[in-house]
Amino acid sequence: MRLPQPPNPAPDEPLLQSSATTTPPPDPAVLAAGKTVYNQLCFACHQPTGLGIPGAFPPLKDSDWISAPNPERLVRVILHGLTGPIQVNGTPYNGMMPGHAPTLNDEEIAAVLTHLRHEWGSGASPVDPTSVKIIREKEANRTAPWTLQELEQLPPAPANVTAN
Ligand code: HEC
């Protein structure tokens, strides 16, 4: 699937804009592409409503993971998956999500996360394909799903992987 590309930032511009108030609304074409990805790959577990299935699949609607100020953790979860105990809005889950690194390109991952953050993440900032590319390259040797403990031990996201 080929998705619309955002224009390249000017050389002196940061890769991603800061603060929700200055971030322009996401491109409708990107939102539509993200919704298509969701309806093909994510809805079977997280459900068309985004509410998941209690005890098995956590909700994405209003999830504090989805609305996180920095999307780095989200990008890692989509690329390589997630396993072991987590909490979503205070409710515990302990399942296994497969990674999508082999099936989704950088634009598709950015689009689905931009769509989810717009739709179900209180309008959190869009995710740039460049951020996905940077993280994908950094984790090129990874195959195993992340655990929450590993995600918590990561150093702070580099400035150019910040979506807000
Ligand atoms: C095969 C089922 C399955 C598929 C397909 C799947 N997920 Fe998940 N997802 C899970 C499970 C299970 C967890 C919780 C893992 C755990 O308990 O450690 C999870 C956790 C998450 C989380 C973090 C917790 C939360 O609820 O916010 C996000 C974000 C997420 N998934 C997004 C996605 C997106 C986006 C897609 C599609 C690209 C997707 N998932 C596809 C099963 C799935």
UniProtKB/TrEMBL annotation:
<feature type="compositionally biased region" description="Pro residues">
    <location>
        <begin position="1"/>
        <end position="12"/>
    </location>
</feature>
<dbReference type="InterPro" id="IPR051459">
    <property type="entry name" value="Cytochrome_c-type_DH"/>
</dbReference>
<dbReference type="Pfam" id="PF00034">
    <property type="entry name" value="Cytochrom_C"/>
</dbReference>
<keyword id="KW-0349">Heme</keyword>
<dbReference type="GO" id="GO:0046872">
    <property type="term" value="F:metal ion binding"/>
</dbReference>
<feature type="domain" description="Cytochrome c">
    <location>
        <begin position="29"/>
        <end position="120"/>
    </location>
</feature>
<dbReference type="InterPro" id="IPR009056">
    <property type="entry name" value="Cyt_c-like_dom"/>
</dbReference>
<keyword id="KW-0408">Iron</keyword>
<dbReference type="InterPro" id="IPR036909">
    <property type="entry name" value="Cyt_c-like_dom_sf"/>
</dbReference>
<dbReference type="GO" id="GO:0020037">
    <property type="term" value="F:heme binding"/>
</dbReference>
<keyword id="KW-0479">Metal-binding</keyword>
<dbReference type="GO" id="GO:0009055">
    <property type="term" value="F:electron transfer activity"/>
</dbReference>
<feature type="region of interest" description="Disordered">
    <location>
        <begin position="1"/>
        <end position="27"/>
    </location>
</feature>
<protein>
    <submittedName>
        <fullName>Cytochrome c</fullName>
    </submittedName>
</protein>
